[in-house]
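User: Can you help me understand a structure? I only have the sequence.
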Amino acid sequence: MKHLKFNRQTSSDIPIPYYKGGVVDEHFLSFLTARYHFPNQVRANLKPCLSRTLCNIASNVGFLINIFEENGFSYLEANYETLSHVITTLYEDEDWKGSSLKVYAGHWRMFYDYLSKKNIPHNMILPARNEIKRKTRKDEHYLSHTANSSDLVSELEETMIPRSYLTHIDDYREKVISMDQWFELENHLRIQDPVYATMATVMLQTFLRLGGIFQVPIAPTRRNPRWKRYAQLKQKNESSQPLEYIKKGQKPEVCSIHIYTMQIIEEDYLSLLYENRKKLYKEKYVPSKHARKQGRTEKDTYIWLNKNGTPVSPRELQSAFEHASEALGFAVTPHFMRHTGACQILYHYVKKNKITLSVDQSTIVHTWLKNQLGHSNISTTEHYIRTVNRLEAESCIAELLPQALPKNLKDHMLSDKHIEAFERTVDQHRLFFEGFDYQAK
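Assistant: Let's start by predicting it. Here is the structure, written out as tokens:
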């Protein structure tokens, strides 16, 4: 798999984009050079930028290029449907704010507009921006005391970002599901492939985002050299272990993985399915064209393998949730697991410590909650506080807790194998949220 990097250790203010082996991406370098030295070649009336701004543009465009590469195609092969999916994923599954996406999208558009202007073939046909008019503020005028408050200024609206993404939301109620819905989801994912159900459970109990779940190792790695499987944790009488991973924005983070979560990984997936899937990976997948294109070999170790022995991809897991949403009649994405689990454990934490949950207590709660969720902004903690408060006021909180057993599954025709796995998951899920003893770092 190709991965774009930048060489900034040169006398030039322009970061040099290159791949492994020192192969420079000439199209990208040409764009960065034009943006810095000849901005009119990129877009008419475009103002020059500082070297710091150019580095931000390079990072933002490089980020998109690497996402495309991770999915098996180049930025010249990608189309707008693919880009729209990236934007949706970043917003729904990675918690990106609409305002941040708007900045990134502007840089992506600039890059592809430049490729078109230079007649470099590509498949990215972007929707035109809309011209909108708004009233100017007095402080936008040099002679503000003489400005007419009714003056209008024209702007181009970035149509790649849905307007709903730019709407202010102060809680997560729309992204939290009940326990009844959770157990229905878990069962549907298990029928598709048990690996999806296990991954969903891990996300619910760890609050990992979509990108984080794929960084859970099966054995010690350079980033997690002391990683233990369930039996090792049990033998050493350890209730949890830290997982070091890279969160959104390419920043390092640590979260706690509880022994109950490791037990589910082991008993519902690894001990039952992994060895056979690992064999399929080596014998069927590695020789395939897709594996060669991704640069995958027998030496690579992936914990999440589907029934064909292929490493589960983010898009594949999202698709499993989409199928479940359609079949079950309620919308749910992988990121709902983070919000649902966080609300559950926040509720238990507050009750256990006899705290009156309110935004006034956000500093106390934030100190505890930020460690596991990996967020630094206290406003995110306040979102969770409002969510739990409003659900409790609406008498909905009981439906979120593990004590609420599913009702609808009794009418389902399930095999003994599915019923056994389902009942084990219910019990372990209850144990986790009732007995979770968070160990602060």
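Now, to help you interpret it: The first helix runs from residue 26 to 37. The beta strands are 5-7, 16-19, 23-24, 130-135, 152-157, 240-247, 251-258. Let me know which part you'd like to focus on.
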